[in-house]
Amino acid sequence: MAPDFFHYRRMRLAFFSPNHPPLFSDDAPPSFLVTMSMAAAAAAAAPAVAARASKTSIYSQETRSPLSNPNLRFPTRPSFPKYPSFSRCAPEPLFLSTSPRAAVAASSPEPLFLSTSPRAAVAASSPSPTTFHGPCYVLGDNIDTDQIIPAEHLTLVPSKPDEHRKLGSFALSGLPSAAYTVPFVPSGAASTPFPVVIAGANFGCGSSREHAPVALGAAGVLAVVAEHYARIFFRNSVSTGEMFPLESEETGIWKECTTGDIVTVDLDGIRLINHTTGKEYRLKPIGDVGPVIEAGGIFAYARKTGMIASASTA
Amino acid sequence: MASPIMAPTSSIFGEKMESGLISRFSPSISAHRCRKQALNRVLAVMAPAQPQRSPATTGSVKHAMTMTEKILARASERPQLAPGENVWVNVDVLMTHDICGPGTIGIFKREFGQNAKVWDREKIVIIPDHYIFTSDERANRNVDILRDFYMEQNIKYYYDIKDLGNFRANPDYKGVCHIALAQEGHCRPSEVLLGTDSHTCNAGAFGQFATGIGNTDAGFVMGTGKILLKIPPTMRFILDGEMPKYLLAKDLILQIIGEITVSGATYKSMEFVGSTVESLNMEERMTLCNMVIEAGGKNGVVPVDKTTLKYLEDKTTLTFEPVYSDDCARFIQEYKFDVSKLEPLVAKPHSPGNRALARECKDVKIDRVYIGSCTGGKTEDFLAAAKVFLASGKKVKVPTFLVPATQKVWMDIYGLPVPGSGGKTCSQIFEEAGCEVPASPSCAACMGGPLDTYARINERQVCVSTTNRNFPGRMGHKEGQIYLASPYTAAASALTGYVTDPREFLL
Fold first, then answer.
1. Which CA distances in Å does B180 have to B101, B128, B169, B501?
2. What is the pLDDT of residue B27?
3. Does the entry feature the keyword Lyase, yes or no (chain B) (predicted)?
4. Chain A residues with beta carbon closer than 8 angstroms to that of B116
């Protein structure tokens, strides 16, 4: 497949240094992200930590399906939003990484790494991710496509790189503000700090617009854990490979989670761990669409099974 | 003849091998065993080949199939299919529009090459309809993208629009894609129709498999003419009884969705049968199938009958062969409704499944009424609304927006006489009732759209609408309150300024 921005995914790593004020103090904005200059300074000041950062990050710049190749994502602005719902357990460190090695090492959580230095984006070989980790955004039942991406933004064409990015900035902007006080994409930002979305029943109901899973993926969502999905949305998520649509065994887990809880989605163990509440939930195995997702979407699967010829170059 | 005899012996050997006993035997015995196996192998090679026996000739049990299963079996060239199987299906028609067409085209070119050709230039139908009459530059650009592709690929069916100021100056332009597909003869029994729009299930009224897909799947179909589908089990809805004169198909489908919930038909096919369904005309059947997606359904089907054939008479010369569910086909669920006992319904904000009796919402003050969309903007829908206005003779109390689905519907509004009116047309009745002038045919405000879209809800208002969804922000403003209703109920509500049961005017 020709390299394409479409499959270019980036993962944010947060950088933590003991010299910095605790990220969850009441004085500083309770943000787990720091400014670029601070990060650079901290990187210089804590080489050991930096070394760990580069080791735990997967920064393949190769453009393949996002499910196999997430990349480092850089914040687009120096100032970052507040997340008052974050756990205040002092210095409960966080890391955001999809490296399986890091995930394995993180039975005790590792320090928070935020690196915006291009140095950190060293291309390293990246096996398929088996975990997604970070703060979660919690939604209820029947979140429809109009809430995921309001219709006025459908003039954006997802196959155009800049418009693909713009779609991401509008992800979940249709949610009623009264019910969802924390914006999914912070005002003025182009992406979301929440790599995992937890939802109730019938997620993605409504339209067949592919803009819906695309907006979530473009915003930076890596996985959604819902009770179950509307079929066209599920199908689109699988065909595009924009994000992993997972189902929970139990119902109502969204009621036990709060936006900002730190979670791990463990694909190998087929479970969701909420580190903030300490609870663990079983997920359903991916099922029939497994081969399609593993191949990297419907086109890759069709090529793999010989249904269509190998990609022709433009 | 030797092999069937030998087979059991070799399997016995096989079992013993697996249990590890072979290691305990002396070399001579194991040598003998090996020779015997070799003998088995030689005999197996010498055995005459068994003739291939196709299932039909053996008279093996053939499971009865439902309509949907039969349509997909034919399209995937399989004699037999069961729910749950994943099969590659041949596509008869692929439809796309201005919202998803450009994205689909982008994917098609990316995956198959900039110079790739579509799989069949006569099987793709491109219908601009969503964001047409707007000054939004991107929306206008998207129609241009469709035109460029049509010219490059020599697509047979492209219903173009260039003059946005006057829709009538565009002879090719149709309007809302699902109604255009039906009116232009692209919906045919037993075919597989896919569209980049969730309401593609509308076409199931013609006894075909029709469902909505996303850009990536559509891009794939564009290049190959095939799609990977999971066969859905079928839910059967038996609607019997005489249709009361204050009820329309919209009430029936709202009843069903309220019953099974908005995810009650997820991954399932919905089959509509019964004497009431048989009494419905094609446009009413379309309304029924149109909202299958609101219950999460994969597709909806109505069996083909005289009504279908009559409608198709002047629309297509292509041949087709209707299929019907077998008598002992297995349905995952069956629901029976006595239609004569049903009452007019609304779906309250903010879900199509939030069912309530219209008469129980009579204290809900409304700000506007919208009659339009693929669900409720067809000729029959406007005739129904006109009937209520005629029966009342009064003027509407709130702005009442009328958006015909297609050019043909627009012409019917201005041309067809309304029964019992002494020769008046819908347009005259609407004018006398004080409704807004019928607008240019398109999807318009059904799904909000660019800010300058006709009849878009831009303030916190309450609207009764003949459209298909009422999730937050559906028609524009996030706090807009949308009550989904039939054209009868919408017209009645316009006359009182409150959500109103049409029996106020129709009995």
1. 16, 10, 17, 31
2. 52
3. yes
4. 312
Q: What is the pLDDT of residue B52?
A: 58
Residues 6+ apart with CB under 8 A from B2: B43, B44, B46, B47
User: Is B54's pLDDT higher than 80?
Assistant: no
B449 or A122: which carries more pLDDT confidence?
B449
Bridge-based pairing of strands B400-403 and B462-465 is unpaired
Residue A166 zone, left/alpha/beta (φ > 0; ψ -120 to 50; rest)? alpha
Report the residue from A205, A307, A311 with minimal CB separation from B111.
A311
The closest CB to that of B266, out of A157, A230, A313, belongs to: A230
Asked if A176 and B478 come within 8 Å (Cβ–Cβ), the reply is yes
Q: Cβ distance A238 to A297 under 8 Å? A: yes
Amino acid at B313: E
Closest A-chain CA to B201: A208
What is the predicted pLDDT for the residue at B61? 60
List the domains of chain A with CATH numbers.
5-68 (no CATH), 102-304 (3.20.19.10)
Residues B385/B484, Cβ–Cβ less than 8 Å: no
How many angstroms separate the CA atoms of B250 and B468, rounded? 9
ipTM of the prediction greater than 0.85, yes or no = no
Return the structure tokens found at B456: 């878009």
Judged by a CB distance cut-off of 8 A, whether residue A183 touches chain B is no
Mean pLDDT over the full length of chain B: 91
pLDDT digits (tens, 9 = 90+) for A44-78: 444 443 333 333 332 333 333 333 333 333 333 33
Does residue B222 sit in helix, strand or coil?
helix
Q: Which residues pair with B85 in a beta bridge?
A: none
CA distance B499 to B358: 7
The CA radius of gyration of chain B, in Å to the nearest whole number, is 28
- The closest of A60, A51, A52, A66 to A123, measured between CA atoms, is A60
Q: Is-contact B250 B234, C-beta < 8 A? A: no
Helix (H), strand (E), coil (C) string for A36-78: HHHHHHHHHHCHHHHHHHHHHCCCCCCCCCCCCCCCECCCCCC
Q: With a CB-CB cutoff of 8 Å, which residues 324-383 of chain B face chain A?
A: 351
Nearest to A147 among B107, B223, B473 (CB): B473
Task: Tell which residue, B77, B112, B85, B98, has the closest CA to residue B142.
Answer: B98
Which B residues 150-189 touch A at CB under 8 Å?
A: none
A146 touches chain B (CB under 8 A): yes
Mean pLDDT, residues A135-155 taken together = 95
A144 contact residues in B (CB cutoff 8 A): 469, 471
Strands (E), B348-433: 355-357, 368-372, 400-403
- Pairwise CB contact (< 8 Å): A144 & B471: yes
Residue A308 pLDDT grade (very low, low, confident, very high; cuts 50, 70, 90): confident
Closest residue in B to A142 (Cα–Cα): B262
Q: Which of A166, A208, A301, A304 to mutate to test the interface with B (most CBs of B within 10 A)?
A: A208
Summarize pLDDT for B264-292 with one digit per residue, the tens.
999 999 999 999 999 999 999 999 999 99
Determine the pLDDT at residue A305.
87
Over residues A168-190, the mean pLDDT reads 94
